[in-house]
Write the structure tokens for this entry.
Amino acid sequence: MTATDNKVDWRALWASGDLARFCFVSLGILLHATNETMIATIMPAMVGDLAGVQFVGWSLAVYELGAIVAGAAAGRMVSFVALRTNMMVAALLYAAGALICAAAPSMEVFLAGRLVEGLGGGALVSLAFVSVERLFPRNIWPQLFGIMSAIWGVAAFSGPMLGAIMVGLLSWRWAFGIFTLGGAVMALASFAVLSTPQATRPQASTGTAPSFPFFALGCLAVSIVLIAAAGVDIAPLRSSLLIVLGLAGLALFFRIDALKPRSRLFPSRLFSWRSPLGSGMTMVAAFSIATCTFSIYGPLLLTTLHGIPILTTGYIIAAESIAWSILSITVANMRLERDGPVIVVGALMIALGLAGFAYTIPAGSIPLILLCALLQGGGFGVAWPFLTRVVVASAPKDEQTIASAAVPTMQRIGYAVGAALAGIVANVSGFSEGLNRDAAASVAGWLFLAFVPLGVIGCVAALRLSSITKRPAQRQIDGSDLALDRHETESA
């Protein structure tokens, strides 16, 4: 291989075929992430065609649920089935889901397609990361993972824009038609591109492959469906019972995960505020649940209430993603001892943006809505790189690999739960009676306010994290407790 420890020869990497192969497997990330972010800007046109506004929250919830399950499964399947075969099946699942969405005659069929799409997309993302480990030399992994991060940024920007352009020029169905074609082409191309021995033979990892968390993920799926179902036909007793059962199921999911060390998705002491890991994961959960409301309902409300063009709402959502990416790069090189304060600043930005939407969406002021979007996205960009670093560093040494994957997994769970809860609030506020201007005005007034308490919880968790990460850092500066690692110091 023509890459050195300090520098990668990209021309030679291309000539060898490795760079083209990497670009191909990264296409799965692009397909998944673009589709995930596109749904916001096609939602007004789709609801106008299919009706079923009471199911809007489900569109994200079922997609994320499929992605969580498939992502967990794909990393284990490569130990038993060749990487190329896994990639083909995932791409075909993705294409089939997109085709169902494109041809859906009703919202119920559309949601079934979103679930299948999520299964395929989640598997494609997981397999892309597995491919880096299996197909490429270790010394170029940092560069390849850096490119993957850039792909996520491009997808976050291009998804809303693609949806807006398709709706403006053709139809929302054509947007899914593009993804159907992309998935089918990727499945067919897998034969030629993934032709190396590493890709065409199963490769069991060292030792026995970890068991699949069937029961835990089944419990998670049932819990999210119960919460989402509580908002479809609002009835006080029935809806309250479903919410209680759903939240109890979530608690059971985390409990089951903690009791299964060989298949667990999260590190131990997951929500304990006595450690930075617990405070950090609480912050991730709270903000992920609270902030998905704008991406789901923002364009629908702005178009219905104020007649704001879909393309404009696409620009606003894209601006949120751009702020996330730019500020992540800007703060990436800050000194380690500033982790806590930077995370707090990011948390406050997210909470201010979330609270601001409660005023700006009903008012319809595009500059103020844009400001709130920049605050929310920029807050994630400021806080998330440091938050991830603190969570991983404060995990027990034998759980740091699990901790590194726990932040994005918790985000996905948060988005799914948040979408389900947002559907309840929106339907209680007026969407259960159908989509009209009066209902949209009522929903806009309550939807974002309802999630402000979670924003407050996220800020309190950030402050707690900052306070307990200062003490070990100060001890190191003073020259004491040098023999203790970070986790042991905080436990003491």
Notes: Confidence is low (pLDDT under 50) at residues 1-6, 471-492.
